């Protein structure tokens, strides 16, 4: 299998000349008659962003995640470092570098946003030098955000304490992360954010806005069960949706310790289905929401003591680049 480093775009440069090569790239661009970066553009950079591609990442997946970060950077100008470990070690420490840069127009022609990428490939024997090289590539006066993607075990990721400890946010996706990623004793656990939770924002907003029309006691009184049903591929989304519902039900005054809270996998044919159902001690009351991500359609069917309400709605997940913003800034 080719190295993930080779699947990413960019111009390969000596590791010791990354900063010089970035500056030269913009100079060469201007010499060719194309737009060049200026001092004002450089100051527009807002964040440092490290995308760490673990050994579970394939070249095709690496290219997809790279494109997501490019889209994110069009809205939030960033200095991005992409870390690409080698699957097999080599006799001597080895580190390779690529640089990549683009400028985008924002809301006006005067709003030019520029992003610079540094890709670093490293062998296991070069691992002790990685943090020093990353620190050189980052802007010292900007916050750091760290996205760990494709790691097989939390223990291997925990070895990168410099990044985990310095990052304002550490991003993982519990749909593909190690099973203990959300409970592992990270150096700064309060910084951890789950992309599976973040991409559910439109779903959480839709359900929350519907239930907000009812007094909290109407939702909480007599609640016996809360079940989230999900397609097999949406197990992580079902789990985090149930955890969110639990917190909101507690806020409504529900005695959740006496409520049966569970997730349930649907048949394999229900590829994009999610559903939420509340059961009450009296059969006259109900709440049911169901949605299909494949069609974008959802529906509410509820009677919480003031008559039955049926309502059609939309359903979607946040695009990956928007989920990154949600995880980083909210």
Helix content: 25-40%
* Mean pLDDT across all amino acids: 91
The number of E-state strands comes to 14
Largest sheet: 8 strands, mixed
Low-pLDDT segments, ≥5 res: 39-43
Helical stretch tally: 11
What is the N-to-C succession of helices and strands? EHHEHEEEHEHHEEHHHEHEEEEEH
Shape: elongated
Any idea how many domains? 2
Measured distance between first and last alpha carbons: 38 Å
Strand content: 25-35%
Rg computed from alpha carbons, rounded to a whole number of angstroms: 23 Å
The computed structural class is alpha/beta
Question: Strand order, biggest sheet?
Answer: 1-4-5-3-2-6-7-8
Question: How would you portray this structure in words?
Answer:
There is one protein chain. The protein is α/β, with parallel strands linked by helices. It has helices at residues 18-31, 39-43, 59-75, 130-137, 154-158, 161-166, 195-198, 201-211, 216-220, 235-251, 320-329, and strands at residues 11-13, 47-53, 78-85, 95-105, 112-122, 144-149, 169-172, 192-194, 223-230, 260-265, 273-280, 286-292, 297-303, 309-314. The strands form 2 sheets. The protein has an 8-stranded mixed β-sheet with strand order 1-4-5-3-2-6-7-8, with helices on both faces. Strands 10-9-11-12-13-14 form a 6-stranded mixed β-sheet, covered by helices on one side. Helix 3 (59-75) packs across helix 11 (320-329). The radius of gyration is 23 Å and the shape is elongated. It starts with 10 loop residues before the first strand and ends with a helix.
